[in-house]
Amino acid sequence: MAGFGTVGQGFAEVLALRKDFIKERYGEDARLVCVMDSSTYAADPDGLDPLELVARKKSTGKVGDVRYQDSVEVMKSVEFDLLVEVSPTDVKTGGAGLKSITFALESKKDVITVNKGPLALKFGELVSLARKNRCKFRFEGSVGGAMPIINLCHENLVGEKIASIRGIFNGTCNYILSKMDNGQTFEQALKEAQQMGYAETDPTNDIEGYDSACKAVILANSVFGRDVTFSDVEITGISSITSEAIALAAANNMVIRLIGEVSPTKLEVSPRLIPKGHPLSIAGTLNAAQIVSDLAGPISISGRGAGRKETASAILSDLIAIMDDRKRT
Amino acid sequence: MAGFGTVGQGFAEVLALRKDFIKERYGEDARLVCVMDSSTYAADPDGLDPLELVARKKSTGKVGDVRYQDSVEVMKSVEFDLLVEVSPTDVKTGGAGLKSITFALESKKDVITVNKGPLALKFGELVSLARKNRCKFRFEGSVGGAMPIINLCHENLVGEKIASIRGIFNGTCNYILSKMDNGQTFEQALKEAQQMGYAETDPTNDIEGYDSACKAVILANSVFGRDVTFSDVEITGISSITSEAIALAAANNMVIRLIGEVSPTKLEVSPRLIPKGHPLSIAGTLNAAQIVSDLAGPISISGRGAGRKETASAILSDLIAIMDDRKRT
In terms of domains, do A161 and A221 share one? Predict the structure, then answer.
């Protein structure tokens, strides 16, 4: 596992919680043979104790005793068959995550990631590399956290011709807009979101729609087979939405939501009017998506878009899919 | 295929629409070797033309030239490896559907059904029979039409501990309650639902909650491993909901929805207050469900609960899952 922040620690906890489940389903443990944080690592071919790692990180700030410079060198030094890449997102260069994922796929290892940077920048290259080397490459948690949208499109809806996906891909914006529905100004709602820990001190990435745009790119590439990057998205954020606009929408039985729209020809993030009672009119920090396809019509899904356990649950679902697949072959 | 009403014809059309998809994915066609309606059948070991059957049914009222008395005798006379059972629902005895499904599973054939009667009455027996004979037995379309709830719980969320499911399992009731939100009385809304073709002339099965209760039973047995039938459900319908109750809910920023609640200890269908903006506050004929689990938290899904193409799409998803599985082994 590369990365041991909130999501990495959450996934370590989930591995401990699901130890018996995994043992029973596969007849063996999922061994954590190496874990890196940003500067140190711990490794043991017999398997590390995930909860011990979480405790050590909490008390010392580091996951391991050994310092390292280059994650690829660390990966070269251990035997592993799957990389869980959960290092911090860098949407400008792809960061260490892009290097680690590339190395793992080149080495014919399966990869699970929730890291939006590499996916928004180099999706096509990474998927081709995985295909060439017959590796599994899964990234459910990169869009919508616990909301199972990518696997839903790829697996449950594989017989459908999907025409479009419209969704709420940023819980912070949805929280702010929901608070504005209840009469707060944008500034009041943003301040409250910051106090609640939903928005960062510099909220630009969320409120200007950049985070939603990354997710739209991932869906465009993975569900619609497009070849687009962040700069291809038409983006309008929510910072200029006034209380008057919200009130006018409400008078027409509508709410305003920040919607990412993805289709074979569209790639856009912008505030939209949504009728109350519509599946995308949901309130709070939830993420949601509506998938429109030729047979099923509109199918909507919502769930928690972020969170320690919640994002870890998406990684677990990818891990189970990969282990099921290995068991079969 | 046993049954050639709306859903059966819809599935025949879907088979024609997805002919190329199936051929490409599996290297062979899905051949329809025998189709029965309530009194006749057509059979051809080389495969019937699904669109010709639909046309014949439309022009003559019958799918085939040969009359029959007993669906089991027909099945004995043809070679097949999968039964699609879509005959009319009989929740008192299970009807012809129960007989056909039982015979198919006893003969070690895979079965896909959307028929709520056999599932609500004899779930445990049918699942045991399928397990004993190593057959696939799938029924996604029996709950929520195109909304992929059963496969979502069994596959995407297999690593979750599901604590409860609460859902809107009847689109007719939801349509009526949504119209009451807009100021209609129950009687006006019901009349409109009947004019639109959403409610039957005798609307008892929908408005008294019996249809929702069948679906709650199927979820209780299939997702929670319970062994319950229709008579175990505590049922309250929507016929006594007044405009005053709706107005009072609205004044508190709530709506009233007919909710089925299923958990290891609960099995109930009753009108509930749902906050506006909640995933279960949706309007119109949609079905919806909220699945609460230990890691992901609440995941909600909604979609069209009925319809020719929509229910057929659920059958298609089950067919693909079965064919994928056969391809692997």
Answer: yes
Tokens of B96: 């012809």
Structure tokens at B283: 């309007």
Range of the domain at B220: 153-304
CB A308 within 8 A of CB A146: no
Residue B88: DSSP 8-state: P
Given a contact cutoff of 8 angstroms between Cβ atoms, the answer to whether A129 and A105 are in contact is yes
- In this complex, do B155 and A155 lie within 8 Å of one another by their Cβ atoms? yes
Q: Which residue in A296, A302, A312 is closest to B295 by CB distance?
A: A312
- Which residues of chain B are under the pLDDT cut of 70? none
The verdict on A248 and A108 lying in the same domain is no
Same-domain check for residues B239 and B312 = no
Q: Select from A211, A286, A307, A317 the least CA-distant residue to A6.
A: A307
Report yes or no for ipTM above 0.90. Answer: yes
A299 with A185, same domain? yes
Q: Which residue has the tokens 């011709």?
A: A161
Whether pLDDT at A306 is above 90: no
CB B146 within 8 Å of CB B314: yes
According to DSSP, residue A118 is labeled: H
The CATH number assigned to the domain holding B163 equals: 3.30.360.10
Residues of B in contact with A178 (CB under 8 A): 277
Cβ distance B317 to A278 less than 8 Å, yes or no, reads no
- The residue in chain B having the minimum alpha-carbon distance to the alpha carbon of residue A156 is B317
Distance, in Å, from the CA atom of A215 to the CA atom of A114, rounded to the nearest integer, reads 11
A297/B303 Cβ within 8 A: yes
The pLDDT tens digits for B63-73 are 999 999 999 99
Answer whether residue A22 is part of any domain. yes
Contact B288, B282 (CB under 8 A): yes
Q: Are A106 and A99 in contact (CB under 8 A)?
A: no
> Which residues from B are below 8 Å from A328, CB to CB?
328-329
CB count in 10 Å sphere of residue A228:
18
- In this structure, is residue A1 part of a structural domain? no
A131 and A179 in one domain? no
**Total of domains in chain A:** 2
The pLDDT tens digits of the residues spanning B86-99 come to: 999 988 899 999 99
CA dist A313 → A145, A306, B296 (Å): 8, 11, 6
* DSSP 8-state class, residue A114: -
Residue A25 lies in a domain: yes
Here the CATH number for the domain that contains residue A28 is 3.40.50.720
Instruction: For residues B31 and B58, state if they share a domain.
Output: yes
Give chain A positions within 8 Å (CB) of B160.
313
Tell me which chain B residue has its CA closest to the CA of residue A25: B159
- Report pLDDT for B306: 87
pLDDT at A245: 98
What's the rounded Cα separation, in Å, for the pair B102 and B119? 11
Please indicate, yes or no, if residue B1 is contained in any of the structural domains. Answer: no
Specify the DSSP element, H or E, that contains B234: strand B234-235
Let me know whether A263 and A319 are in one domain.
Answer: no
Residue B41, SS3 per DSSP: strand
For residue B309, give both structure tokens.
Answer: 């193409």
A284: alpha, beta or left, given left = phi > 0 and alpha = psi -120 to 50? Answer: left
Q: Say whether both B298 and B188 belong to one domain.
A: yes
Marked catalytic residue, from B57, B122, B136, B215: B215
pTM as predicted: 0.95
Check CB contact under 8 Å for B283 and A276: yes
SS3 at position B124: helix
User: Which of B18, B21, B299, B327 would best serve as a mutation to test chain A binding (most A beta carbons within 10 A)?
Assistant: B299
Residue B266 token pair = 């609960």
Q: Looking at beta carbons, which residues of chain A come within 8 Å of B329? A: 328
